[in-house]
Amino acid sequence: MAIILWRDIQKIFSLPLLLATGGMMLFALAERQLTTDSMQQFLLRMLSDHYYLTFCLTPLFFLYLYRSLEEELPFVLIRSKTFSRYFFRKSMAIAVNSLILVVFQVAAVGIASTGLASRNVFPTNSVAENELFFEFTKYWETPLFAALCSALFLVVGFSLIGFMLQTMHHFLEKRAIAIIGILLYVVMILALKIPALSKLPFVPNRYIILHYNFYSSTAWIWTAAGVAIAGTAGFLLIRYGWNRQLKIKIRSQPKGLFFYYAEAYGYPSTWQFYSASFY
Q: What is the value of pTM for the model shown?
């Protein structure tokens, strides 16, 4: 089983990791030109920039995740003895790869911040660009500790999303996972401009970006509940329902002249996409 784990961990060392690290390096170097932050403040600012996390890091993580999804090989399942043991090893690999991805981001920011002063305190000037820092001071005493918590939150969020999409992939086709991933990403983008949307429990932003849970005192409770529900549901499905199948089909009978002639020339008049059945 260690071989399977190591094989899955090696998948992160690919184009998405290279692009994510290079993207963070370029972004951090561009931001460093005019910054007055200390090294610790700069690290926190980069790791909490929701535009970079949304438009660069998250889609690259989805790309890695989609490329790593694969059908279970019979001989691998036999060696694993139980399916749940095999599946949770793969989930462990996703968690490790999420950690590697975030560590590379932190390293890129650290390299880009070389030469900045070392002051592990939050800025006291109340300019607009430090508004987010003011929110962090409510929970943490130093920017370095807040940055480490933001990085850890990214790891946990990516691990949870990877676990859920891998669970869905066991029951659905890979094409369906791609559609679900795209829909989640669209919701994530919309949440940037629609504050009310970012407060909903199923929006990915609140599980990836730490400061999306600052809007109310109950936000942390809803996020923790979402993690518990998603994790428990995935665990129960894999532990007790792994040998079942879920098929989703949508049948429609289109009307019109075009479809009439299409049926006349041998094309199906009933267009079948995907009936929900779990057996």
A: 0.84
